[in-house]
Structure prediction request, 672 residues.
Amino acid sequence: MTTPTITLRAIESVYLGGQSVWLNGLPTSFQRTAMGAPAREVDPNGEHTVGQIYAQHYALAEPRHPFPVLLWHGGGMTGGHWESTPDGRPGWLWRFLSAGFDVWVSDAPERGRASWAMYPQVYTQEPIFRTKDEAWKSFRIGRLEEQPNGAMRREPFPGQRFPVGAFDAFAKQWVPRWTGHESMTLAGYDALIRHVGPCLVVGHSQGGGFAVAAAQRHPNHVQAVVAIEPSGLQADAQARVCPHLAIWGDYVEADPTWNQARQRVLEHWQTANANGNKFDICDLPSISINGNSHFPMADNNSDAIADIVIRWLAQRSHPHQSLIKGDQHHETQEIF
Amino acid sequence: MTTPTITLRAIESVYLGGQSVWLNGLPTSFQRTAMGAPAREVDPNGEHTVGQIYAQHYALAEPRHPFPVLLWHGGGMTGGHWESTPDGRPGWLWRFLSAGFDVWVSDAPERGRASWAMYPQVYTQEPIFRTKDEAWKSFRIGRLEEQPNGAMRREPFPGQRFPVGAFDAFAKQWVPRWTGHESMTLAGYDALIRHVGPCLVVGHSQGGGFAVAAAQRHPNHVQAVVAIEPSGLQADAQARVCPHLAIWGDYVEADPTWNQARQRVLEHWQTANANGNKFDICDLPSISINGNSHFPMADNNSDAIADIVIRWLAQRSHPHQSLIKGDQHHETQEIF
Prediction:
């Protein structure tokens, strides 16, 4: 449920982490950096800052939970997609604030306002760019049907909840990405968590994988993790860590890549639980919520998915209360 | 003056404008896009979206002015710098909201969350990256003194108001930029203004030049322009347009590039006024506000500069009231 208004005591942003690199021996150029102004020499040689993370903090005047929620985007995305859905409905930022959580929205290193660094001088590789057809398929919005003229037609899956009429608007949210930058990205999230302190992390896709890793790297800070269709797990499933919830949408089993990713998560979760952790799984179709794409926070039932996340997090953000109530894990199962 | 809390009815964002480009004939690659996942084929050929603008809208529950303020960053920056100063004080976003204006903060095409496009396939040139030394000099924070070992030492100007202790943090806000992209950027701002409707535009540096151009391109929408140290004017000084205010900081006359930019603005303003417009100039040192850099919204007197902008805008954002009061231009002169 959203509230009609939200009262904040601060909207602020920080740029954290990163390091200096010195470049030299690069050619200078003469360029006109302002309309109608004379060309000037542009010299890229010298000290640059690379690897920083950017985060916005929305601080409620009266938060109702002790820990803020950190919203982490997936690969090739920025924090912008938490603000509004592609078809213009309120995003999860507003919903989490409505639910009484302080919220941090970040752009990980190399993306959005966190900036990116020169390649091949600093980043060794070229970035990769997502096409609309690739996204249509890999985000499980639908099939690609080859037409007689060779072009592909984008056919949504029956019952699809992604707002397909806003797919072109959604494409405007994508940014280039690099592969092999996991260490840099984790270092950025390290800096963010050290800055924020105790927190709840909600990560989507690649950001979900980073959230699972961050929980292990910062056991005293990360109080709970919600991983929305996490990809790329790099954490020890046997470590004792905070409670985790993984959420999966629809059409997963028919997609080899996502089915494989989900199987890896299931195995990790089983091992974690066998080692005394409280790791939950919510397959949305198993609770009769059908038709969700890889972006449930954009789907037309985004509010319902947010409610699931918020209820699960609310139980875990008041640890003393939970202890009084008894078995945290058992209570959780009742939600689904 | 800021308020301790702000009540909003919406925080939302939009991605506007842009167009599709189709790329083909590019090589595919195999890359591991998630930690520990198998490498997959990455195919950049197909439909991409380029040239969009990103904007966040902070809508007050009870705005006290009829028109929202649009905050436009300068070259190589994003909208992030309006949120907090580099040393962590509240930015102009919070101040304008405190003053009762709805606010839109945008990232222009090619920057931040607006994304950027492949080069040389879409953008024909490589981007340029700002070094710390270049910024120190061109933002008029201080001098560069060559040391015996050949390195440059950054020496702030006496009386400098930029928070020089946060200069390294400030460097984390910079993003790569391209030259020659004015048409694309103006098209992005066109899309934003058409989306917002009647508005007040506050543009910094390159964004100030775009604001002046936008006032002429959208005479029915842009109600007033504040250009903070505008660079790159491309507008007809003889056109009848809304009231404009240009603000200049300190150390300008000793800097040939900025002195020249300021002279161009002075000439443009004089011609505009000779043609019946109401164009004001505020040289901060002339009203005994000394020591401001090229980034007055980051300087340690950023609140005082915001107050000047807010008072000037408030007078122009109630046009019917102003008509009753008489000569708008004459009233303005009294501020300075």
Summary: Chain A touches chain B through 87 residues (CB under 8 Å).
